[in-house]
Specification:
Elements (H helix, E strand, L loop, with lengths): L2 H24 L9 H12 L8 H6 L15 H8 L20 H25 L15
Length: 144
């Protein structure tokens, strides 16, 4: 590194250090550097009362209600019925489907299609796995 380059780096570091030290000192006196309009707007915004931005339904729902009058039963409806003695049982209607006799051609078609797909897949893998080399033929002599 040349002395000129080293001097340039030292000077740059000194400038950065001076800026870093002087920046906080500039704002330490507490002067309000905003424009007068901005200062007035900030004062009026701080003095204005809080605005309730909730919807009317939400405001009504959050009004103070006597908590002692409200009883919330957290049980499921089935648990409430069981505790009160109201047990209603309905037997489900069961219908048994009789097996059909005969041959299902739809299932046979699906099975045959699956078998053909597996056969073609195996054939493709076999063709890719075999490495067929043909002998190198000597070049033909061209008559002059």
């Amino acid at each position: 590194m040349s002395p000129k380059h080293r001097r340039f780096i030292t000077f740059g570091a000194a400038v950065v250090l001076a800026c870093a030290v002087s920046a906080p000192a500039t704002f330490a006196d507490g002067a309000d550097l905003r424009s007068p309009d901005t200062r007035d707007l900030a004062r009026s915004a701080q003095a204005s009362p809080a605005v309730d931005l909730r919807s009317p339904d939400s405001r009504d729902g959050h009004r103070a209600a006597p908590a002692a009058d409200v009883v919330i039963d957290g049980r499921s409806p089935d648990a409430v019925d069981l505790a009160s003695g109201r047990v209603v049982t309905l037997a489900p209607v069961v219908s048994v489907a009789a097996p059909q006799g005969g041959f299902d051609w739809g299932d046979a078609g699906i099975g045959a299609g699956g078998a053909v797909a597996v056969l073609l897949l195996g054939l493709g893998v076999a063709l890719m796995a075999t490495h067929r080399r043909r002998g190198i033929k000597p070049p033909r002599a061209v008559p002059h």
